[in-house]
Amino acid sequence: MGDIESGDIIKDENLVYSKTKVLTDNVMHYCPGCGHGTAHRLIAEVIEEMDIQSETIGITPVGCAVLMYNYLDIDMQEAAHGRAPAVATAVKRLMPEKFVFTYQGDGDLAAIGTAETIHACNRGENITVFFINNGIYGMTGGQMAPTTLVNMMSSTSPYGRDVQMMGNPLKMTELVAQLPGTFYVTRQAVHTPSNVRKAKKAIRKALENQKLKKGLSLVEIVSNCNSGWKMSPVQANQWMVENMFPFYPLGDIKLDGKLVNQE
After folding, report:
1. Separation CA 54–CA 67 (nearest Å)
2. Per-residue pLDDT tens for 13-55?
3. What's the CA gap between 184 and 202, in Å, rounded?
4. Cβ of 25: how many Cβ atoms within 10 Å?
5. Which CATH superfamily is domain 21-253 in?
6. Edge-first strand listing for the sheet containing 216-222
7. Pairing relation of β-strands 182-189 and 99-105?
8. Could you write out the DSSP letters of every residue in 213-224?
9. Coil, strand, or helix at residue 84?
């Protein structure tokens, strides 16, 4: 097959992949190897495939994803640190026909925003929460987060997380799955093609659940933070598999309002 000359027409049947129109052309600011970019792309692709671009409203708080509105061509609202579920609650109640989601990191959702997260889940607000868990505060200097593993080093736990002094890591996803207001709770990852496909399926299910008006859907995505972990992207992915996944196992935790037996 010869080289493609300028002016040649690429036929649809020869097109392997094209960027979703829901993503803007802005260059993402995330570190090379970060899972945020992939998560953004999956959400954008699902929005396009569901044909709900004009009907979707995203809420982003403070954190690495604070500039998400630069990358998704949808209506978006920025919230104060940790308050995205509260803002999403107001938006959904005012415009119940819209698809409303929050996109939050672990420091935002499970630390300063713990109360907003818990109560939105307990009330069963008809929204979707996308939760990126990399076990660290990525944007503000690599501090220990609620999800930081035992013995995991960070800028505020340079010798590793000590349970006696700093407490245990918080399994936020398992916690909210126990609440009656949650309808779908799952934990996924985006570090391999197979995991990307599973995560995309979960994202679509979580958004489609808003049509059912059965409660809140939460999709946790366990990701890396190679800059905060002081590793290369390849090393960070391997460390994530070997250390994060045993403590934060992937898979559905609550499906259609019923807890899933993960044993």
Report:
1. 20
2. 777 888 999 999 999 999 999 999 999 999 999 999 999 999 9
3. 9
4. 7
5. Thiamin diphosphate (ThDP)-binding fold, Pyr/PP domains (3.40.50.970)
6. 75-78, 56-60, 99-105, 128-133, 216-222, 182-189, 251-255, 258-259
7. unpaired
8. T--EEEEEEE--
9. helix
